Amino acid sequence: MRLSFFLCAMCICTLVFCSFMPPLNPTTGGNKTAIHWLTMEEAYQLQQKNPKKIIVDIYAEWCGWCKRMDNTTFQEPAVIRYINDNFYAVKLDAETKRTIKLGDESFNYRSNGRGGMNELAMELAGNQLSLPTVVLLNEKLSNRLVAQAYQSPTDMDAILHYYASGAYDKGINWEQYKKTYVSSIK
Known about the structure:
Oligomer: single chain
Number of helices: 7
Order of helices and strands: HEHEHHEEEEEHEEHH
Shape: globular
Number of strands: 9
Number of domains: 1
Radius of gyration: 19 Å
Structural class: alpha/beta
């Protein structure tokens, strides 16, 4: 009786302890079924050698919707596969205080009252940053598509295909594209 009580108590303690553990660091790409997250500097360097579209996930540590996207949208196998095959994927903490250097340009943290933002996060979001924000850039690091707020896996799938297929560059209306796009995600 005591042994079963002890084992049950240990199981409960283990479950409680694990539920408070932070999620795996999304920038490590810990396994083959994870997005291969890079820093902006790493993506920029790779871009110089092998041009490819870039997806930038702009987040903040305190942002609940950002964490939800990490735990749902960016865990969807079809989204992971499509991002890894078609984009350099960047995680950018909007509030990073470190200077980000891309070529000859430097992007610094700008204090604003009690908080602040990194200049790169603001520039990528067109100075209209709300979190989470996903920015898609073409191979020339221009012609950006900005998607603000939480994006479900099926919404993100459609956005990625819209941009990577060239529909965005051709000026195809997003609403029309969305009506005809058939996602492989159920």
